[in-house]
Amino acid sequence: MSEVVNHHPVHEAHHEELGFLRKYVFSTDHKVIGIQYGLTALVFLLFGFSLIMLLRWQLAYPGKPVIWLGKILGENFMPGGIMLPEFYNMLGAMHGTIMVFLGIVPLAVGAFGNYVMPLQIGAPDMAFPKINAASYWFYFVGGVVMLYSFFVPGGPAQGGWTSYTPLADIAPVGQTWWLVGMVFLITSSLLGSINFIVTIVQMRTKGLSFWRLPVFVWAQFVTAFLLLLAFPPLEAAAVLQLMDRLAGTSFFLPSGLVVSGQMIPNTGGGSPLLWQHLFWFLAHPEVYVLILPGMGIVAEVIANNTRKPLWGYKTIVFSILFIGGMSFTVWAHHMFMTGMGTTMSTFFQTTTMIISIPSVIILTSLLLSLWGASIRFTTPMLFAIAFLPMFAIGGLTGLPLGLTTSDIHLHDTWYVIGHFHYVVAPGTIFALFAGIYYWYPKVTGRMLNSVLGKIHFWLSLVFMNGVFLPMLIQGMAGMNRRYYDPTATPWGKAMQPFMEFISWSAWLLAISQIPFVINFFWSMWKGRKVTSDNPWDATTLEWSAPTPPPHGNFPTPPEVYREPYEYSVPGKEKDFSPQFIKEA
Amino acid sequence: MNPGTWRDWLPYPPNLSEHGPGVDQLNTYVHYLMFVMFIAWAIYFVYCLIHFRKREGHKAVYNPAKGKLAKVSEVGVILAEAILLIALSMPAWAAYKKNFPSREEALNVRVIGEQFAWNFHYPGNDGVFGRTDPKLMNNTGNSLGIDMSDPHAKDDIITLNEFHVPLNKPVIVDISSKDVIHSFTINVLRVKQDAVPGMVIPIHFKAVSGVGAHEITCAQLCGLGHYRMQGFVYIDTSEQYAQWHAQKESELQGASQ
Questions:
Q1: What CA–CA distance (Å, rounded) separates A329 from B38?
Q2: What is the per-residue pLDDT for A584?
């Protein structure tokens, strides 16, 4: 049976030979686009991460000059090597923007979604290959615009990744470029999401009913709906803010605004809170855009490495669907301190508590999947199982922030930063690493080195916690976030040892990524070659395709015979029964 | 329950206001729930990793784990969250937001945020705020745009980054901003409220202990000076407060003569 998988006949060339540009640059092949997304997103992740390395210097050693950095970055950012507060704010704003919109979402959805999803549903490509390519190029332009904004007068955006008005309305020109960049990025996501939905609905191969879809495909499906429905309001809001800045409107400016003793000429009639509602109407579903694909990857890797079916497949899928729908009703829990009355706060803290339940259920299901398993501690599995307690901390620390009364104390403190980073950094990013280690052999035909992988994992795990756990304590002690000089207040000064500890953890975390970078490139040329199309003995459809899959993916359309995670089926010789192999 | 005992194990700052213990109490209970859930998960998790590791002669079991423990614990989590929400958070928030002290009985102060300072506007001896107009705001002595032709304005006390309140007296603070969004934060009083331009948002508190000076900070990013937008709240005994108020009034009279 498995010979069918291992030895493919010479594939008939369904596609004419393309030139280099058409094949690798302006390709419409979902796999090439997925790789483009992946490489671009990894570069942006590294860039966004290095911004925070710089910022952490100022937090650990406020005002201490770094002469050589000052020479590189110049008088506008670090005169004499001392970071300006404006530059500190730019680093914070651009770190958030880049990590979320240019790093994690493109990696989780653009790269993994694009590469893996069509393979997992047995499709030859996405439904609209040209729209798929357009989606990448809109993303690319959006990224270039964001990078370019570092070179405009006054530097890039500095009002936080949330760009709250009126601060953003009156900010230097970098904010305009931020808005233009966002319009490109949102357009990219919209194009991608429509494509994902149509592909999953229309292009599943024979026998692949919805209830046989891998959890990863379900996660991408729900994520696509979130992108489709949540992004348009932010696109509209970004255009309105552009109008405020360029055309003299005042959608987000109230009457009688006086900035440094001068009345703003175009002020009147607008509402600063309108921006926050529009922004968070996107940005809360966005949180689930960040986490759901990660959960999908973790589910795949856990099923594969426990060698047994996932516990509660349908429960997990219903929870994902419920989270998707519910995520549109919780946005104002980011705004509890805006003067919200009891009616709204009652509604939003209730919905917030309700949405925590399906997350708990998913986590419980994944934990229960470990029971009775035969766990292989492969590198992807290490990242996937570490995801569970890390995401648990991230999720649990959301509870006191989601209740209005306890939020009074924790709102806008380091506790918030610790909370959402636990969800996104040792949460989603670990899931993404699991995905990279897991699917790398399918993409390249070679395995990533597992010794380097394990070094990467253990160091990352230790230092991730070294960075984010102390933040929860700082926040509990009442330290506000986004402070250029944490020692400016007496209370902050007393907490300074935490800042130093976190910064050193962050720099060591950066060093911990070196084994990964080396592994990633070294294995491309020198890694152990896979001897089978299915090196992990997995059950889902992507492992039936040749390695690496050619344009068009499958020599003949695969057929699906069973559920996605049929591992250790009683009475079978092998401990895995792939979806694509007919058995008696 | 004695506030001193149940909150000591979490690194809270001092808690000096009347409503503050309610905030900390909920926070502590939520963290109890979090710790219980996390530790229960962690014990189970570590057990699985050791007991169900791949090894010679060990095989995975196809049939799913059975037993009611998961369901029972999930129902437990739902119940615990419902109790925290319905029995603690909602009533505390509603009480805090709705049960304002009367304006007559309380000290009324306006707080106006600007880049990067807190302005405090007291109504003075007549208890009435003078008229203000953003058109009159300037950087040369009238940052709040007070209309000095209004007789009520004559005795108004204006301070910068200096907020005096008497101990054990309810205070109503009307919070607004001249330019961008700030967030008026006094950690030790468990007070945090965004100052939104175009809106006047009233909050209230009563300091019940901690005579002396405490930090006021800004919790909402408001520009390059966000980190240094700080002032001090002085919790005064009623004698100290009366003395301070009288001194400010006599300075005003001296200035107008």
A1: 27
A2: 65
Helix (H, G, I), strand (E, B), or coil: what is residue B184?
Answer: strand
Instruction: Write down the residue that tokens 């980011």 correspond to.
Output: A334
Which residues numbered 156-175 in B keep a CB inside 8 Å of some CB on A?
none
67-96 in chain B: CB under 8 A from chain A: 70, 73-74, 77-78, 81-82, 84-85, 88-90, 92-94, 96
| Structure-token match 């050193």, residue found | A504
Sheet arrangement for strand B201-205: B157-160, B117-122, B107-114, B171-177, B201-205
Rounded Cα distance, B95 and B89, in Å:
10
Say whether A243 sits in a helix, a strand or coil. Answer: helix
Number of other residues whose CB lies within 10 A of the CB of residue A456: 26
- Give just the sign of the alpha carbon dihedral A279, A280, A281, A287: positive
The 10s digit of each residue's pLDDT in B75-105 is 988 999 999 999 999 999 998 988 899 999 9
Q: Which of A94, A258, A345 to mutate to test the interface with B (most CBs of B within 10 A)?
A: A258
Length of chain B: 257
Nearest Cα neighbor of A319 from A274, A360, A287, A259 is: A360
Quick one: closest CA in B to A577, which residue? B62
| A6 and chain B in contact, CB less than 8 A | no
B13 in Cβ contact with A491 (< 8 Å): yes
A368 touches chain B (CB under 8 A): yes
Which residues does chain A have with pLDDT short of 70? 1-16, 584
Q: List, in sequence order, every residue forming a beta bridge with A373; answer none if it has no partner.
A: none
User: Which tokens belong to B256?
Assistant: 């107008």
Q: Which residues of A269-293 are buried (b: 16+ CB within 10 A; e: fewer)?
A: ebbbbebbbbbbbbbbbbbbbbbbb
CA–CA dist A505, A201 (Å, integer): 45
Four-point Cα dihedral A94, A96, A98, A102, nearest 10 = -150
Mean pLDDT for the stretch of residues B166-183: 97
Interface test with A, best of B66, B98, B181 (most A CBs within 10 A): B181
C-alpha dihedral over A543, A107, A387, A316, to 10 degrees? Answer: -60
Q: What gap in Å lies between CA A471 and CA A415, rounded to an integer?
A: 6
Instruction: State the smallest CA–CA distance between residue B45 and chain A in angstroms.
Output: 7
Structure tokens at A355: 């949405």
**What are the b/e assignments for A432-453, b being 16+ CB within 10 Å?**
bbbbbbbbbbbbbbbbbbbebb
Single pTM value for the model:
0.95
DSSP letters for A249-306: --TT--TT-EETTEE-TT--S--HHHHHHHHHHHHHHHHHHHHHHHHHHHHHHHHHHH
Pair of tokens at residue A391? 């995401």
User: What is the predicted pLDDT for the residue at A2?
Assistant: 40
The pair of structure tokens assigned to B101 is 């002290």
Chain A residues whose CB is inside 8 A of the B139 CB are: 260-261
Does ipTM come in above 0.85? yes
Contacts of A461 (CB under 8 A, 6+ apart): A386, A426
Q: Does A259 touch chain B (CB under 8 A)?
A: yes
CB atoms within 10 A of CB B251: 11
**Taking the C-alpha atoms of A281, A285, A287 and A291 in order, what is their torsion angle to the nearest 10 degrees?**
180
Report yes or no: B64 at the A interface, CB cutoff 8 Å.
yes
Instruction: Measure in Å the smallest separation between the Cα of B223 and chain A Cα atoms.
Output: 7
Q: Does A322 touch chain B (CB under 8 A)?
A: no
For position B74, what pLDDT does the model report? Answer: 86
